[in-house]
C-alpha cells in the first residue's frame, strides 16, 4: 500500500481524497496555488506545497511543478481528482516514468477513450451500441452534407477533442449545415487546438444516463448501477440522481452489461464512468467514457455504501476490485451548489463568504471546502459544494433535499440554492418527466 499520496487538485475533491487517505492510514500532500493558500485541503493535508500563481496553467496544470512537489515530499502516488490533469495521458505517462503511481488508468487506456472517434470505433468492435454517424472524422463540408443526408436530420456536429459543450452544434436542415460546420470547427480549433469534427444522429428527447464501473488488472469488471444526469444547463450537469426515474430492471441490466463490455474492451483498471444517451423509447447509445472519478460519484457511494476513492486507491495498489454488480434499493439526489447568480443567467459570483450555515439531519451529506470568511477565487470552477439527500424513495429524497436546501445559508455571494429550491418543487421534475432539454424551458420565479 502507498505510504504517501499527493493530490494534484484543489477544493472539495482534494479534501474528499484526503479524508479517505487518512482513514486508510496514508499520509497526504496538498498542492496549491497562491489563491488557495487558505483552502481547507491545504489545512487538512499532512504536508502542503505551493506550486504557483492562481492561473491553472501556472499551478494545477503545471506538470513539472507537480512532479517536483511529489519528489521533494517523497510521495509514492498521485491522485488527480477530476478536471485539470485527471484525464491527461501525458501526465499519467510522466508519473509512470518518474516512478510515481498514477491513481487512475495508464496512458494507453486514457488515449483509447480520450479521443471520441477512437472510442467510438472501440465500442463498435466491442458490440456496444453507438449513435449512427460519420464513423470517423469529416474530411470537409461536402462529406458532412453526404453523411447528414444518409443518417437524416437533425444531426449533431461534435469536436473530436471536445468537452463542456464546445465545438457542438445541432443542425436541423442542410440550409443550416455550412454555417454550423464552420463555426463549430473554428470554436473547436480555438478551444482544443484540434478542429477535427465528426457527426452523429441527433437523439431527440434524450436522457443522459451513466453507469459507474470499476475494473482491475486481473480482468475483473463490475458496474455499480446508474446515475441520471439529465438536468443540465449548456451541457453542464446541475443535478444527479440514482436510480434514474426512467430506468427499468431490464434496461439497467442491458446498460450495465454494455458498460462492462466497454471497460473490458480497453482492459480498464480503476473506477470510471460510461456515459450513454437514452432516447424516449429506451434505446441507449454510448457517448463517452470518463476515465476518472466523477463529480457526482457521491450519489453512487450513498446508494451502494461503497467508498469509490478507496476503491481507486486499492486498485492502483494492485488489489482486486471489491465491488459487484449492483441494483439500488434506496434513492440519492445530488445538487451542485455553484457560486453563480441564477437570476442573472448564472453569472459567476466569486467573493468572500460572510455567513455560512450548512444543513444536516438524517439523510444529508455535504461535500464542500468552503467556510465563513473563505474567499472564492475567480480563477476556477464555480462549484463550492455538493449536497446529497438519501431516502428510501425518490419522493422522500426530494422532500429531504428541499428541507435541507431551505436551511442552507450562504451570504456574501450569489449561489444556485434558489434554483435548486424551485426545481425540487417543479411538478415535472418530481414526476420524473424531464430530458437534457428540461432547463431550456425552466424559468426562475
Structure description:
The protein has helices spanning 11-23, 40-44, 63-72, 89-97, 107-114, 116-126, 141-151, 174-192, 249-265, 297-304, 308-316, 394-407, 417-424, 427-431; strands at 4-7, 27-33, 47-52, 77-79, 101-102, 155-159, 169-171, 197-201, 207-215, 221-233, 236-242, 270-278, 284-290, 331-338, 340-341, 347-348, 351-352, 355-357, 364-368, 375-376, 383-391, 409-411. The strands form six sheets. An eight-stranded antiparallel beta sheet has the order 13-12-9-10-11-14-21-19, with helices on both faces. A five-stranded parallel beta sheet has the order 3-2-1-4-5. The protein is 33% helix and 26% strand. Helix 4 runs antiparallel to helix 5 (107-114), helix 5 packs across helix 6 (116-126) and helix 7 (141-151) packs across helix 8 (174-192). It has 445 residues and is α+β, with helices and mostly antiparallel strands. It is globular.
Spatial strand arrangement across the major sheet: 13-12-9-10-11-14-21-19
**Fraction of residues in β-strands:** 25-35%
CATH architecture of the largest domain: 2-Layer Sandwich
Shape designation:
globular
CATH class of the largest domain: Alpha Beta
* CATH homologous superfamily grouping of the largest domain: ATP-grasp fold, B domain
What is the CA-atom radius of gyration, in angstroms?
21 Å
Tell me the domain tally.
3
Q: What structural category characterises the helix and strand content?
A: alpha+beta
Number of strands: 22
Distance between the termini: 52 Å
Oligomerization status of the protein chains: single chain
**Portion in helices:** 25-40%
What's the helix count? 14
Q: Would you identify the regions where 5 or more consecutive residues have pLDDT less than 50?
A: none
Amino acid at each position: 500500500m502507498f505510504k504517501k499520496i499527493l493530490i494534484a487538485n484543489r477544493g472539495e475533491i482534494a479534501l474528499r481524497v484526503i479524508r479517505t487517505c487518512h482513514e486508510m492510514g496514508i499520509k497526504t500532500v496538498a498542492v496549491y496555488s497562491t489563491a488557495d493558500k487558505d483552502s481547507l485541503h491545504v489545512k487538512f493535508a499532512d504536508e502542503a506545497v505551493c506550486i504557483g500563481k492562481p492561473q491553472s496553467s501556472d499551478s494545477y496544470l503545471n506538470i513539472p511543478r507537480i512532479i517536483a512537489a511529489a519528489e521533494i515530499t517523497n510521495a509514492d502516488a498521485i491522485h488527480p481528482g477530476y478536471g485539470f490533469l485527471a484525464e491527461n495521458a501525458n501526465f499519467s505517462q510522466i508519473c509512470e516514468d518518474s516512478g510515481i503511481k498514477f491513481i487512475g488508468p495508464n496512458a494507453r487506456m486514457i488515449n483509447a477513450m480520450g479521443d471520441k472517434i477512437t472510442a467510438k470505433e472501440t465500442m463498435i468492435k466491442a458490440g456496444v451500441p453507438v449513435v449512427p454517424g460519420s464513423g470517423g472524422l469529416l474530411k470537409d463540408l461536402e462529406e458532412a452534407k453526404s453523411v447528414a443526408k444518409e443518417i437524416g436530420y437533425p444531426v449533431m456536429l461534435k469536436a473530436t477533442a471536445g468537452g463542456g459543450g464546445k465545438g457542438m452544434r445541432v443542425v436541423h436542415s442542410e440550409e443550416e449545415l455550412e454555417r454550423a460546420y464552420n463555426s463549430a470547427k473554428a470554436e473547436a480549433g480555438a478551444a482544443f487546438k484540434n478542429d477535427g469534427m465528426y457527426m452523429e444522429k441527433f437523439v431527440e428527447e434524450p436522457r443522459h444516463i451513466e453507469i459507474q464501473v470499476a475494473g482491475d488488472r486481473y480482468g475483473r469488471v463490475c458496474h455499480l448501477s446508474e446515475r441520471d444526469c439529465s438536468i443540465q444547463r449548456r451541457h453542464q450537469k446541475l443535478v444527479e440522481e440514482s436510480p434514474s426515474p426512467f430506468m427499468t430492471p431490464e434496461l439497467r441490466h442491458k446498460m450495465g452489461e454494455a458498460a462492462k463490455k466497454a471497460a473490458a474492451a480497453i482492459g480498464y483498471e480503476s473506477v470510471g464512468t460510461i456515459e450513454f444517451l437514452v432516447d424516449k423509447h429506451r434505446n441507449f447509445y454510448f457517448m463517452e467514457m470518463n476515465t476518472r472519478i466523477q463529480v457526482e460519484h457521491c450519489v453512487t457511494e450513498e446508494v451502494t455504501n461503497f467508498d469509490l476513492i478507496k476503491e481507486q486507491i486499492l486498485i492502483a495498489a494492485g488489489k482486486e476490485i471489491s465491488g459487484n454488480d449492483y441494483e439500488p434499493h434506496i434513492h440519492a439526489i445530488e445538487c451542485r451548489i455553484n457560486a453563480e447568480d441564477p437570476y442573472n443567467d448564472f453569472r459567476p459570483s466569486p467573493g468572500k463568504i460572510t455567513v455560512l450555515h450548512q444543513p444536516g439531519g438524517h439523510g444529508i451529506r455535504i461535500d464542500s471546502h468552503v467556510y465563513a470568511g473563505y474567499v472564492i477565487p475567480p480563477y476556477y470552477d464555480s462549484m463550492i459544494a455538493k449536497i446529497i439527500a438519501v431516502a428510501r424513495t425518490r419522493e422522500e429524497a426530494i422532500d429531504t433535499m428541499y428541507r435541507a436546501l431551505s436551511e442552507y445559508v450562504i451570504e456574501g455571494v450569489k449561489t444556485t440554492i434558489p434554483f435548486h429550491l424551485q426545481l425540487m418543487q417543479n411538478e415535472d421534475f418530481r414526476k420524473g418527466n424531464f430530458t437534457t432539454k428540461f432547463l431550456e424551458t425552466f424559468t426562475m420565479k
